[in-house]
Amino acid sequence: MEKWFETIKKTLEEAYLSHDEPWKQSGMSGPEGRWISLRKPVADCLDKSGSFFDIGCANGYLLECCLKWTTEGGFSIEPYGLDISEKLIMLARKRLPEYLDNFFVGNAFNWLPPRRFDFVRTELVYVPEEYEKQYLQFIMENHLETNGKLLVANYGEGLKKEEIEKGIIKGSHATSDILERLSELSFSADGYRDGYDPVKNRRVRIAILRSE
């Protein structure tokens, strides 16, 4: 497990830090328009003012954008972020210096937060396939406020398995249908939001799990 997570850290640092554009430092190739079409659905899940914790926040650009998008929607969020990479967290703290103390370095698989949050975003590819259920249960039990929402993002929605496998660490599950995968793991989504990139005919789906 330790070696697997070290591979993730090294791979992401090499890929993200080779770019200057903020969206590319946060995992999105292509122009900024693609970033907006495939990442704004995250903000569309934030339906009230509150705390928003982004697991795998990279350079903090998604949090910065969600601050803007939610303000446009008439409410506000307090951003928090976690990443396994110290180098990426340094970029996030520079990007949002007013929230300097809201960024943490750690492994989401077992990291315990100093508080609970109204909204938490994550992805299944952050852990090996056989630990997905354990990971989601850990987040639900330790990170979410009562009636909080866990946003499980799938950026390979609708793609063929071999296409997804090109962009994920070996050992992650190549999920092409996030609602189906969550059902296999005994989770029932409370809803979802979709995004679409017409240039590459690529979809994203953000499944919403609600805590009790």
Q: Span between N and C termini?
A: 30 Å
* CATH architectural type: 3-Layer(aba) Sandwich
* CATH superfamily label: Vaccinia Virus protein VP39
Class from secondary-structure proportions: alpha/beta
Q: Mean pLDDT, nearest integer?
A: 95
What can be said about the biggest beta sheet? 7 strands, mixed
* Helix-residue proportion: 25-40%
What percentage of the residues does DSSP assign to strands (E)? 15-25%
Radius of gyration: 16 Å
The shape, in one word, is: globular
Number of helices: 7
Output the CATH class name.
Alpha Beta
Oligomer: single chain
- Which topology does CATH recognise? Rossmann fold
Poorly predicted runs of 5 or more residues = none
